[in-house]
Amino acid sequence: MTKQKVLFATIPPRREVPDEVPEFAEFSELFEVVVYPLIDVEQFRKALQTDLSDIAAVYITKAFFKHKFNDFIDYLPPTVKVVALPHVGSDRYDVEKIKSRGIKMCNIGDAPSSDVADVALSLALSTFRFTTFWDHAFRESGGDIIKMKSLMGSTDVDSKTGMPLEAPEDRRFWSKHATLGGKFMDSPKGKVAALVGFGSIGKEIAIRLWAIGMKIVYTKRSELTNAELAQLPFAPVYYPTLDEMLPNTDLLVLAVPHTPQTVNLINERTIQLCKKGIRIVNIGRGTAIDEDVLFKALDDGTVNSVGLDVFQHEPHIDKRYLTRHDVTIAPHVGPFTRDNYHYVAVRTMDNIKNILLNGGDGICPI
């Protein structure tokens, strides 16, 4: 019996095949794995009509980040039944056009949720305790604890470096002046953490924030069902709209995908609704925040501090972030763990097996 073919496009010398996971051996027994170079767009288009004219599935690889997958949709052979994404976001793909050709699409669903939530927790803690600033400054000082303590209670920052200046002696009474460059150092315990987006990632984040003593509220298109609430170790408070939630929020966590509805959720209007000194974490999509509005709010104290793993204009980052002590930044590394990439590969292969072997819609259909 002829095996169905699964395409892995690669950019040499990289070989983007998940053969490091044990489950790939079984996958290779079930299907013919076709590794094909994607160097030139026109050449690859021709290959889809010739050498690759009988493929049954496309396993999305990094090659389709350098060369947009949308540029190849019209050239996919009619034998293609599934396009499998080894990630969550589908905004870079013309999903409707792909589906209009009778091709099913799948992503990895909740596979990276725990790992992304861990990073969100780290960012959240840093917005309260400035842990990443202290790590950087302590190293730069050569390990000078006394110099670090002299920054506690400070109200000003260096106009050139953006880093906190030493506190005057009359502000080194820390029970009264727990500030760093004019921003407050607080405990998250007892504060209100508000989630925008309460899917699998949002729930994992909420569990972690609840575990450190925060009160959890959320907003989403529909309130959690009783069955969903029963799976949580706490009872989160639901707000029908972001506008209603913001005035009661100490920490805002954005865990939303990129859609027309989520672009610039934080804008000139919504920032005015925020409680003074709000903290913001974003691990969803960078487009959820108008960054010019954010910088202004950081400057005037509307926003105390932020933690970001995503940015408005990725892969580029606004250089203003680099000279702020009240911002913790990470280069979009939420899902980057060995464990996650194992889960990702297995979930993607399971999606393909479900469709090609069982005639299903995929484990995680889009």
State the main characteristics:
Rossmann fold, 2 domains, seven-stranded parallel sheet
Commentary on this structure:
- The protein is of the alpha/beta class.
- The chain folds into two domains: about 5-110 and about 340-360, NAD(P)-binding Rossmann-like Domain (Rossmann fold, 3-Layer(aba) Sandwich), CATH 3.40.50.720; about 110-130 and about 185-330, 3-Layer(aba) Sandwich (Rossmann fold).
- The chain is built from 13 helices and 14 strands.
- It has helices at about 25-30, 40-50, 65, 95-100, 115-130, 130-140, 145-150, 200-210, 225-230, 240-245, 270, 290-300, 340-355; strands spanning about 5-10, 30-35, 55-60, 80-85, 105, 180, 185, 190-195, 215-220, 235-240, 250-255, 280, 305-310, 325-330.
- Helix 5 packs across helix 8 (about 200-210).
- The chain is elongated.
- The protein starts with a strand and ends in a 10-residue tail after the last helix.
- InterPro entries: D-isomer_2-hydroxyacid_DH, D-isomer_2_OHA_DH_cat_dom, D-isomer_DH_NAD-bd, NAD(P)-bd_dom_sf.
- Keywords: NAD, Oxidoreductase, Pyruvate.
- GO terms for molecular function: glyoxylate reductase (NADPH) activity; hydroxypyruvate reductase [NAD(P)H] activity; NAD binding.
- Belongs to the D-isomer specific 2-hydroxyacid dehydrogenase family.
